[in-house]
Amino acid sequence: MKTFLTAFMLWISLAVSAVAVEPNEMLDDPVLEERAREISKGLRCMQCQNETIDESNADIARDLRLAVRERLVAGDTDEETVAYIVDRYGEFALLKPTVGGANLVLWLAGPLMLLLALAVGVAFVRRSSKSDSAATQAELSREEQDRLDDILDN
Question: CATH no. for residue 86?
């Protein structure tokens, strides 16, 4: 039963990923079709934004799927095909943006902000503990001590 459920879940997951790709879009060459599917996994639908172009039913996703297949049939490598799409639509077309260039600032901003927040927190705690210990260590003058004693006695 466990094997059946595993096989069924695998079949469902494969069927879901192939929903948007229409039969008339598929290439006759299975090797090129597999390359197109691998490239499509890394490309974002501009309209849906969190779906790959293979998962999306949007018209622009269909156009991107066809463009990928056209480039592969023309003889482009996988990298050239992705570069063509990025040149045409920008880096937003990639589900996983590159780490270089201007994106490097975005990749490093999160960890740098975390380190900055930790440094500010540590400085605040140290400063607070120093001021608290200095205040508790200050002795009362003789006059203040007498007044405190009077208050406590009443």
Answer: 1.10.8.640
**pTM flag (> 0.85):** no
Which tens digits make up the pLDDT trace of 113-141?
A: 999 999 999 999 988 877 665 556 667 78
Do 107 and 48 have their domain in common? no
Residue type, 30: P
Q: Quote the radius of gyration of the chain (alpha carbons, Å).
A: 32
| Sequence-separated (6 or more) residues with CB below 8 Å from residue 86 | 93, 94
Instruction: Give burial (CB, 10 Å; 0-12/13-18/19+) of 120.
Output: exposed
Residue 76 and residue 8 share a domain = yes
Tell me the backbone φ, ψ of residue 2, rounded to 5 degrees.
-65, -40
Q: List residues bridging with 52 in a β-sheet.
A: 44
Q: Which contiguous run of DSSP H or E holds residue 35?
A: helix 30-40
| Residues 36-59: tens digit of each pLDDT | 999 999 999 888 878 889 888 888
pLDDT at position 98 is: 78
In a domain, 98, yes or no: no
Alpha-carbon distance 68 to 22, whole Å? 14
Which residue's entry shows tokens 């570069």?
A: 83
Same domain, 15 and 77: yes
